[in-house]
Amino acid sequence: MPSDTSTSTPTTSPTTGYRALLRNREFAGLYASVTLTAAASTVSGFALGTLVNHQTGSPFLTAVSMYGATFATVLGALTLMSVADGSRPRRTLVTLQCVSLVGVAAQAIPGLPLAARFGLLLVLGFFQSLGTGTRMGLLAEVVPTSTYALARSLMNITSGGMAILGFAGGAVLLRYVNPQQVFLMAAGLTALGLGVVAATVREQSIRLTRRPGLRQTWTTNVALFSHSGQRALLLNLWVPNGLIVGCEALFLSYAPQDAGTLLAAGSAGMLLGDLTVGRLFTAGQRRRYAFALRLLLAVPYLLFAIDPPTLVAAGAVFVASAGFAATLPLQEQLLALTPDPVRGQVQGVESAGRMTWQGIGAALAGGLAQYLDPGATITVVAAVSVAVTVVSRPFVVRARMVRVEKAAA
To answer: Tens digits of per-residue pLDDT, 310-352?
Structure first.
């Protein structure tokens, strides 16, 4: 990884920059597959959460059903994530997309027991984590280093847009069709993503010669977590975000009729944050405002302590979700500290850990909501997120200094 990533930000207009990226056929294919996968995941997750809330009335089970797949991502990170840097990434990605298609389609089986649905979530989470690692490894190869943040920003923006459409569309669809039909629609989106990957992505030639597997995965992970700077960055990429996702997982329990509005507001805020931070900020500004963005992610949720009206709550969620863009500067720093041959695995571990903490956050919030009301639980979880961000700040600053010393060397 070249050491000048932090200063190599494009100065073209957003339209020109994004158009230049999309002229890259392989990036366009990866971008389209991420977009379709996000849409499918959002629609199916909302349908499953609604189904579970309807059948059980449990805040805990509802929260876990919406984000339960994230628990299994850590298994992928600990066992087979080295496949993300294997010699046949296209074949790996197509295979994993096929597995996802089967899993999403299986949710449409009428009368499927809840235990089986949760089992499918875990299987999907495991293979999706490997797919994310493979996709991010390919991304680092098909776009120049100087446009990596721009590429991630565009993917995040579009994923956020798809989430808005998914939550809003899911809420509308469920008024007219049953959850099984929504699952079938999600399977169709997944199949379309599979076709796009198969048609656009090619095998990359510069890859590890070592055979991927459990031993290679563990070797790289041990090296990753032995690095103090990378540990600090991973902590901040995982924990504060995961806790706020736990707050979002309570929206169905907090306001069943307005949950779609709150979730869509969150997705819209995330879209705006990624657009602003990823494209309009310079690399220096991203580093400078990273801490403030991490605080912004949680502080507005403290308003839920006073049970605000729906419009005020949606506004708070919108503003807070812009703080998710703090992941961009942290991901840039992590990539700068990562050796080129293991970029896919490290990016996969980062994504898997972030998704796992989303599941942990949902479980913690859902469990606490069994004893407190959802509004009070959201407030408490947000306060913990603020505390983690503040306490860990010195370690992130130290990681930045390690990166500067590496660049000087």
So the answer is: 899 999 999 999 999 888 888 888 877 777 667 777 777 787 7
Distance, in Å, from the CA atom of 97 to the CA atom of 194, rounded to the nearest integer, reads: 6
Task: Tell the residue number behind the tokens 């990359």, with chain if given.
Answer: 204
Token pair belonging to 52: 């579970």
What is the rounded (10 degree) CA torsion for 327, 328, 333, 334? 60
Q: Where are the alpha helices (DSSP H) in 57-202?
A: 59-67, 73-79, 89-106, 114-142, 148-173, 179-200
What is the CA 226 to chain-centroid distance, rounded?
A: 24
State both tokens at 254.
């907090």
User: Hey, what are 208's tokens?
Assistant: 């590890």
The whole-model pTM stands at 0.66
Q: Is the dihedral of CA 342, 121, 68, 263 positive or negative?
A: positive
Distance CA 197, CA 188 (A): 15
- Give the N- to C-terminal CA distance of the chain in Å, as an integer: 13
- C-alpha 299 chain-centroid distance: 20
The proportion of the chain whose per-residue pLDDT surpasses 70, expressed as a percent, equals 86
Long-range contacts of the stretch 205-210 (C-beta < 8 A, 24+): 206/141, 207/85, 207/86, 207/87, 207/89, 208/85, 208/86, 208/87, 208/341, 208/342, 209/87
- How far apart, in whole angstroms, are the C-alpha atoms of residue 302 and residue 408? 42
Instruction: Yes or no: say if 358 and 242 are a contact pair by the CB < 8 Å rule.
Output: yes
CB neighbours (10 Å) of residue 223?
13
Q: Are 367 and 380 in contact (CB under 8 A)?
A: no
DSSP string, 13-35: -HHHHHHHHHTSHHHHHHHHHHH
| pLDDT tens column, 224-259 | 777 777 888 888 888 998 999 999 989 988 988 888
Q: Which residues contact 396 (CB under 8 A, 6 or more apart)?
A: 232, 233, 236, 290, 291, 330
- CB burial readout 173-205, b (16+ within 10 A) else e: bbeeeebeebbebbbebbbbbbebbbebbeebe
Phi first, then psi: what are they for 397, rounded to 5°?
A: -60, -40
More confident: 203 or 193: 193
